[in-house]
Design a protein that fits this description.
Layout (H helix, E strand, L loop, with lengths): L3 H17 L3 H8 L5 H5 L17 H11 L10 H8 L3 H13 L3 E4 L4 E4 L1 H12 L3 H16 L2 E8 L2 E8 L14 E3 L4 H9 L2 H11 L7 H18 L2 E4 L6 E8 L8 E8 L5 H23 L11 H11 L3
Helix pairs in contact: 5-6, 8-12, 9-11
């Protein structure tokens, strides 16, 4: 007859024996990178010294973002091997994460060549990010500095129907100058700002806009078209264009286009003032290159730069490899 003591001894022996056996479900969980806390929480240099990892940092998310982050502008598609090489992650991890990202629309999978490219969800996020860029906020510090150095009005504008409209302006300290402000309007084909805007458009879009504007100008149109064509060539070669008395006889100006990444609205930045203080020679030799440089800096500030994701400390790589390796 089995006593209570015998039952307890048998139960203890069974538990001891089970503890010695490998736990397949547990091993599968670790192979998927979802089991051991130590393998997940410290996939970064965000470790809090030697005491442990940042508990708010989600390593799995960082690894997924690392895959998206390695795509470059000249990459059409990447396979798992390339993704693994660029991220430093193991191929099993890359395979699972890429599959998940594809299911969520952030990657697109080509089953014939077994490669991935950025998917519609990633592209949508990029367009949303670009649409939230505040060109005025990026441009204003550079405009203020140029206006201070040159002592002339510096304006930022874009097109509104068939006119250019100032979205911001910074005045120099000169007693005599061009007094324009946010909301001021300029003609497109005769002002430096308008011509720079036209030069920043794709050819088909520029031609369509000029066709709309043409009825306003009658017999002078051919001369204006030649001036616009020269402005487009000047922007292509020098980065800026000039209007010397074409808008108003006693006003000279120089401008450069600002093209947003991803095909957003084109802007233009200009500098203008009295013709006798701004001879065309000075515009082309000095102020033109300076306005072009400001435009390039604004464009560079608008271009999203991929932030490098934190790398994995060497002391963690062994743990990650263990967690990522298949059964």
């Amino acid at each position: 007859m089995t006593t209570k003591k015998n039952k307890l001894e048998q139960s203890s022996a069974v538990q001891t024996e089970m503890a010695k056996r490998p736990h397949a479900p547990r091993q599968r969980m670790l192979a998927q990178g979802a089991g051991r806390d130590g393998a997940l929480a410290v996939d970064s240099d965000f470790a809090l010294g030697e005491e442990g990892a940042d508990t708010q940092f989600v390593g799995a998310v960082a690894r997924a973002l690392a895959i998206l982050n390695v795509f470059r502008a000249d990459d059409r598609s990447l396979g798992n091997s390339e993704l693994a090489e660029r991220t430093g992650l193991t191929k099993p991890t890359v395979s699972r994460l890429a599959y998940t990202l594809a299911r969520c629309g952030y990657l697109s999978f080509n089953p014939r060549y077994r490669v991935y490219e950025l998917g519609p969800s990633a592209l949508a996020l990029g367009h949303i990010a670009l649409s939230t860029i505040d060109v005025r906020q990026l441009a204003r510090p550079l405009m203020k500095e140029l206006a201070r150095q040159a002592d002339f009005n510096v304006g930022l504008g874009t097109r509104d129907q068939h006119m250019m409209v100032y979205t911001d302006a910074c005045e120099g300290e000169a007693l005599i100058g061009l007094r324009l402000f946010a909301g001021s309007r300029l003609p497109i084909v005769t002002s430096a700002m308008g011509r720079a805007y036209l030069a920043g458009l794709e050819q088909a879009e520029r031609e369509a806009l000029l066709a709309e504007i043409r009825p306003r100008h009658g017999d002078e149109w051919q001369g204006l078209v030649r001036a616009v064509e020269k402005a487009v060539l000047d922007v292509r070669n020098d980065g800026f264009c000039v209007s010397a008395g074409d808008w108003q006889k006693d006003i000279h100006g120089v401008a450069a286009p600002i093209r947003q990444p991803g095909g957003g609205p084109v802007y233009a930045i200009n500098l203008g003032g009295p013709a006798y203080l701004l001879p065309e020679k000075a515009l082309r030799a000095d102020l033109g290159p300076r306005i072009a440089e400001v435009a390039r800096k604004i464009e560079a500030a608008m271009t999203p730069q991929a932030t490098p994701l934190p790398s994995t400390p060497r002391r963690q790589k062994k743990k990650l490899a263990t967690a990522d390796s298949p059964e």
